[in-house]
Amino acid sequence: MSMLRGARLDDASEIARLSGELGYPASAAEIVTRLTALLDDPVHRISVVEAAGTLLGWIAVECRMTLESGERAEIVGLVVSEQARRQGVGRTLVDDAEAWAHALGFATLVVRSNVLRDASHEFYRRQGYMLRKTQHVYAKTLDAVS
């Protein structure tokens, strides 16, 4: 039997494991640092689905303020364990994010998905999300600050 609940600091190693499955490796210590900063911040929500002490998935959603678009709610991370996919875990997590965003007064929830993640695109379409745009993401490594 799986259970939806808010993330806790002691979930760090499981969140790190799942992040690695998606191609975003992080140590448990790094996740603890991030959770410490995010868990008590009211503009962030991190939820997990757990079964028998193992996390099956997690979602992170946040309120974001941008100059051009104003305030919006956005799913900034969603991972479901490969073994738990197509069992309703992702739907449960997205439902939780939608309920949170709705309770804060948002009429829309946004999510970005890597163009290479075809299964994710189909998942979001099945949940009623519509493609609004495609984009490129650029990054530049900056010199270390002394």
Automatic annotation (TrEMBL):
Q: Which InterPro entries does the UniProt record give?
A: Acyl_CoA_acyltransferase, Bact_Acetyltransf, GNAT_dom
Keyword Amino-acid biosynthesis on this protein? Answer: no
CDD domains linked: NAT_SF (cd04301)
Superkingdom as given in the UniProt entry: Bacteria
Q: Which UniProt keywords apply?
A: Acyltransferase, Transferase
Record Pfam families: Acetyltransf_1
Boundaries of each N-acetyltransferase domain copy?
2-143
Keyword Acyltransferase in annotation:
yes
Record-given protein name: GNAT family N-acetyltransferase
At the highest ranks, the source species' classification is: Bacteria, Pseudomonadati, Pseudomonadota, Gammaproteobacteria, Lysobacterales
